[in-house]
Amino acid sequence: VRGALHGVGHRRRPRRTGGPVTRAGDERGSAAVELVVLAPVFMMLLAFVVLVGRVQASRADVEGVAHSAARSITLSRTPEAAAGDAQAAAEASLRVGSATCRSMGWSVALSDEEVTVTISCTIDLAAASILPVPATQTVSASSTEVIDRFREGGA
Question: What is the pTM of this model?
Fold first, then answer.
């Protein structure tokens, strides 16, 4: 009455043996090889992300600080005297000496009608040293603002 227990059309499951399950082609150790091959690729990708992030963040910071410095000079009653304060504020904002701005260049062009501020920063790229890039890169930005001669207290 064996067929009656399993019903019509059903087959019995084969019994498992106690031995190891083998795969076609025996892939033992392939994960370790894949890890060894892919680890350097992932490290280079990570270094590239750090490189691009640092350069873009520094570029955005320099552009924003140049605009802010030019604007603060034009809002001052004496633009010539405000240039020193704007430079000190720019150095503090850019955190001069950090990896995103090792050193800062500063230039101000004053005329009777406008102020142009040019700022440059040298970025430290040592964190991406496994990539074939220079150790530093310089980014710069300029901003021009019109001096409002008709503001309160102005000439």
Answer: 0.71
